[in-house]
Design a protein that fits this description.
Helix content: 55-70%
CATH superfamily of one domain: Isoleucyl-tRNA Synthetase, Domain 1
Oligomer: single chain
Structural class: alpha/beta
Distance between the termini: 33 Å
Strand order of the largest sheet: 7-6-5-11-12
Number of strands: 14
CATH topology of one domain: Isoleucyl-tRNA Synthetase, Domain 1
Length: 590
């Protein structure tokens, strides 16, 4: 933050001149609203260092700062030094950034590269609301890191093998009648997902029949004819049966086409893909080397384990007795493969639900024990699930909120509201449709991303389309209002530096704008895009207060008019850049 950096430097200077020492730690925070001031120095942390009482420390520093003119006044409240900053510092900051369209972003690319994994779906069902949260979090974190000048690689590992994939294949063979997504006009992932649901329907009926015939429930589940056929198909796939592999490729191809359409509509993308069918055996060689290093040990049955009890965890299997891989084997190999594919990577973020918290603790610890130095820079972006008012979503039962249906519904809702407002008259249908989509998807994305990832979301469709309060549309509308102001000017904006007394509402806006770069840094370090969402919401609230309190285009004073237009323009730039980090667009009219 520009202002706080100035104050930190001034306080350091004060220490050297008053106390003949440099401070070990300067803790600054925004002054609470109930007190006068802009920036607050926490004095308590300096008491031990200076061996003086907090009031005496605060007075000496405050007096020095006022005399040096960086601070115009101060007050002391219970060991907190509240500083009122001179207007010239706010104006210096404003003048330095007012024409920067990339304000908040670092445009130079560092040598640090980070890989972010997100989405990682199964090829037996379309993407649903839970996937939307995953995709939005991962994509937003990628944009946040890029804003900090990091080189970012966006990736996913597609779960394209296993018994669940075979279930859709068996159901299509039995009930598909050679139909295709093209012949039925059904999107590829939705088409295959319908057969996954069909499998579950038939499976349940067969289990019930077996139970009626006297079989125990567990036995019935394992011996239902359609389930046995799926297991048999998996064995054939793993042995490379041409017919089964051909069907697998065809049905997965349908799903991939569907996924790409959803990703495009959602506004997320990827730099590369990893497939479980390619990676599930990758980790085996590292299991062998780990055995030699003593990281792993072999049990009498031939299975290989890692004993993590001394690290507060448990024993974890990394290879079955028959030599087949488990998920941990695959993830060890995939992590190493990614670093080999992209040697500049020094950190990775895995965007995966919190039901996998323990798995990633184990994975990261094993990679550390195997001696990979980059393992210390691995992070699990753990997020809570999304529930419906009716309970947990279940793909096999079809009780999910389909991602495509949800995005379409949000766009329709935006269209209805926009029509009622009647402010898009004169635009072409194509222009209107672009606005409907931007507003509708913005509402969905903001609803998801404004919540801390660790918090569970109860998704209520009615609440998600409420366009009042802390919503994207409220923010987008404020942006559109600013564009209206800029279109209404009948004078040229100059490159002159502003030097004037600031109104409180003007200063409040500049203070909030000043925070933006540090909020981006905080969102990156905490892996929490909600910080960006809540920041831009606060910015818009402050702007609306400014807009309602002070005349802009109608000001009788030319210097106030041009300054307030320039300030509004910078607010618009900041709104646009903040929303962009959330994958949300802006519109000039609403």
């Amino acid at each position: 933050m520009y202002i706080q950096e100035i104050i930190k430097n001034s306080i350091t200077d004060a220490f050297e001149n008053i106390f003949q020492t440099k401070p070990n730690n300067i803790e600054l925070q925004q002054t609470k609203k109930e007190f006068e001031g802009d920036v607050t120095l926490v004095v308590f942390s300096l008491v031990k260092e200076l061996k003086m009482n907090p009031k005496e420390i605060a007075e000496k520093i405050g007096d020095y700062l006022v005399q040096s003119s960086s601070v115009k006044s101060y007050n002391i409240v219970s060991g907190f030094l509240n500083l009122s900053i001179a207007d010239r510092h706010y104006l210096d900051f404003f003048n330095s950034v007012k024409d920067n369209l990339d304000y908040g972003y670092i445009n130079s690319i560092s040598n640090d590269a980070i890989m972010i994994e997100y989405s990682s779906p199964n090829t037996n069902k379309p993407l649903h609301l839970g996937h939307i949260r995953n995709n939005l979090l991962g994509h937003s974190m990628a944009e946040i890191y890029k804003a900090l000048g990091k080189k970012v690689y966006k990736t996913q590992i597609i779960n394209d093998r296993g018994i669940h994939i075979c279930k859709s294949m068996i159901a299509w063979l039995d009930y598909g009648d050679d139909e295709t997504p093209l012949s039925t006009n059904i999107k590829g992932d939705k088409f295959v997902g319908d057969y996954y649901i069909k499998f579950d329907e038939i499976y349940k009926k067969e289990v019930e029949e077996l139970i009626k015939g006297g079989a125990a429930k567990d036995k019935a589940k394992q011996n239902a004819p359609i389930f046995l056929r799926a297991k048999e198909m998996l064995i054939k796939w793993e042995s490379g049966d041409k017919e089964v592999v051909g069907l697998w490729k065809k049905m997965n191809g349908w799903v991939y086409e569907g996924f790409e359409e959803t990703y495009k509509n959602l506004g997320v993308d990827f730099d590369n893909y990893y497939y479980e069918s390619d990676t599930y055996l990758l980790g085996k060689k590292f299991i062998s080397s780990g055995l030699k290093l003593g990281v792993f040990y072999k049990k009498d049955d031939g299975s290989v384990w890692c004993d993590l009890t001394e690290d507060g965890l448990d024993e974890k299997i990394v290879l079955r007795a028959d030599g087949t891989a488990v998920y941990m084997t695959q993830d060890i190999g995939t992590a190493v493969q990614r670093v080999e594919d992209y040697p500049e990577i020094n950190s990775m973020v895995y965007t995966v639900g919190n039901e996998q918290d323990y798995h990633f603790k184990v994975l990261f610890l094993i990679l550390k024990k195997l001696g990979f130095s980059w393992s210390k820079n691995l992070f699990h972006l753990s997020y809570a699930m999304v529930d419906l008012p009716t309970g947990k979503m279940k793909s096999r039962e079809g009780t999910v909120v389909d991602a495509d249906d949800l995005m379409l519904e949000m766009t329709r809702t935006a269209k209805e509201i926009s029509k009622n407002l009647g402010k898009l008259d004169g635009l072409s249908e194509n222009e209107k449709n672009n606005i409907y989509k931007t507003v509708g998807l913005g509402a969905l994305k903001y609803y998801i991303l404004k919540v801390d990832p660790k918090k569970r979301i109860l998704f209520n469709p009615k609440e998600s389309v409420d366009f009042q309060g802390n919503t994207a549309s409220f923010i987008q509308y404020s942006y559109a209002r600013i564009q209206s102001i800029l279109k209404g000017i009948n004078f040229e904006l100059s490159n002159d530096k502003y030097d004037r007394k600031l109104e409180d509402k003007e200063k409040d806006l500049i203070k909030q704008i000043d925070l933006f770069p540090s909020v981006i840094g905080g969102a990156a370090s905490s892996h929490n895009p909600a910080l960006i969402a809540n920041y831009v919401y606060d910015l818009v609230k402050i702007f609306n207060s400014f807009y309602q309190s002070l005349p802009i285009l109608k000001s009788a004073f030319e210097d106030k008019k041009t300054f307030r237009v320039e300030l509004s323009k910078l607010v618009g730039i900041t709104i646009k850049n903040a929303l962009s980090l959330l994958g949300i667009g802006v519109v000039d009219r609403m």
